[in-house]
Task: structure prediction
Amino acid sequence: MPRLSAPPVLLSESDRLVLEKFVRRSSTPQQIALRAKIILRSASGEGYGEIARALSISLDTSRLWRRRWLELSTSDLPVDQRLQDAPRPGGPPKFSLEQLTQLYALACEPPEKYGLPISHWSARELTTEMVKQGIVESISERHVGRLLKEADLKPHQSG
Result:
């Protein structure tokens, strides 16, 4: 059975210069520098196996980045964006930016304003108040806590 040869990679002079700069520059993240090396070696005619051995990477990594480069080379994306990770799969965010903003605003208000006999919000009270106000249909206390932590909001320490 004949072996499949790697598709050729043709680089413009400007792309080659940018890739070489990424490889030489010490501030380039290692993943990006490695990907640039894969593309430069691909353009010089090396096959998947040669690149994998030379760079101590898997054949799959060699194939992936050559294929990705070829797919994106017809786009108008700059070189650095072509070397970035592809978006990860996953569901869309469950809460809108507006709902998050309402949570943060609520957390910054005194609970007394909402008729609550407490001096500071907890995740439990925020969760109850968000559902009561119709901001969200449901949300867990833990998720409210994570959202507040990500936003660096500490309503339990305010006052």
